[in-house]
Amino acid sequence: MPIDPERLKTWPFPDVLHRYAAKDTILYALGLGYGTDPTDEDELRFVYEDGLVPAPTLAVVLAGPGGWVRNAQTGVNWRQVLHGEQSLIIHRPLKAQGEVIGRTRIDDVIDKGEGRGALIYSSRDVIDRESGELLCSLASTTFCRADGGFGGRSGPTKPLQEIEDRPPDLTCDLSTSPRAALIYRLSGDDNPLHIDPAVARAAGFPRPILHGLATYGVAGRALMRALCGYDPARLRRLDVRFSAVVYPGETIRTEIWRLAAGRAAFRCRVVERDVVVLNNGRADYA
Predict the structure, then answer these.
(1) What is the largest CA-CA distance in the chain?
(2) Which among 53, 118, 123, 279 counts the fewest CB atoms within 10 Å?
(3) Packing angle, helices 22-31 and 212-227, rounded to 10
(4) pLDDT in tens, 82-92
(5) Do the Cβ atoms of 59 and 90 come closer than 8 Å?
């Protein structure tokens, strides 16, 4: 069954209630490498319950809609799906623990053409259950590699942040643990691609890969260090395009270009292979 864009744009996503505790907040931060140096007091507060502060990118693992693309009624060949882009706008800082509601919707469906795939643009609001306040707005692009040519609109596609043709103003190198994917998956993404060597080989990878959203979180950690003085309240927006995989144990270098006041462009590359893994990044900060 081919994709029906009108069906997708009215997909009945139920509200998702997500209760998370301090241990969940700490586990998420550990999966991104916070506390690698346990004497670094700037990072310790993201993994220590005494004065615990949540990493701002924690929002990406809260109150998600689950594996909805696996439903045959979507028309999506879910085995050929990739996470193409991710955006996070932070309206209010997250609490270290609490209850939130996630509301997801499909904003648009783009047909790139036969053999070129399709794009599904979706959004999710993360709302504090107690106060009803909007905490974060997330947007995601799902690249459906095998589903183009269903007769839908070919555009417009979302604009991307340009990377300037000059050396970066700042760089930040962060190593990932060989066990990073084993820890990060406990925050909700238990896809065997990230832990089972046989599954990884079947997918064409020599070994399990790191979650894309874990790489995204490492970029957030680097930007917190380089631009925000480790103050999560200063990070307001984080957009990226996923361009290549990271293997646990590799070093991620975040290259940052200062733009207008409170805005920067960035990209991330794996140092060991000199491969850009996140591109067209945008960070807004106070």
Answers:
(1) 57
(2) 123
(3) 90
(4) 999 999 999 99
(5) yes
Indicate which residues carry an active-site annotation: 189, 194, 209, 212
- Same CATH fold assignment for domains 5-144 and 170-285: yes
Instruction: Please give the CATH number for the structural domain made up of 170-285.
Output: 3.10.129.10
Domain definitions of the chain by residue range: 5-144, 170-285
Residue 242 CA: distances (Å) to CA of 59, 69, 85, 160, 275? 18, 19, 6, 12, 12
DSSP letters for 7-60: HHHT--PPPEEEEE-HHHHHHHHHHTTTTSSTT-HHHHTTT-STT----GGGGG
Q: 5-144 has which fold?
A: Thiol Ester Dehydrase; Chain A (3.10.129)
Closest CA to 176 of 205, 207, 206, 219: 219
Query: What is the DSSP pairing of strand 235-242 with strand 117-128?
Result: unpaired
> What's the rounded Cα separation, in Å, for the pair 195 and 180?
10
Report yes or no: 6 and 51 within 8 Å, Cβ to Cβ.
no
Q: What is the pLDDT of residues 243-273, one digit of tens each?
A: 999 999 999 999 999 998 999 999 999 999 9
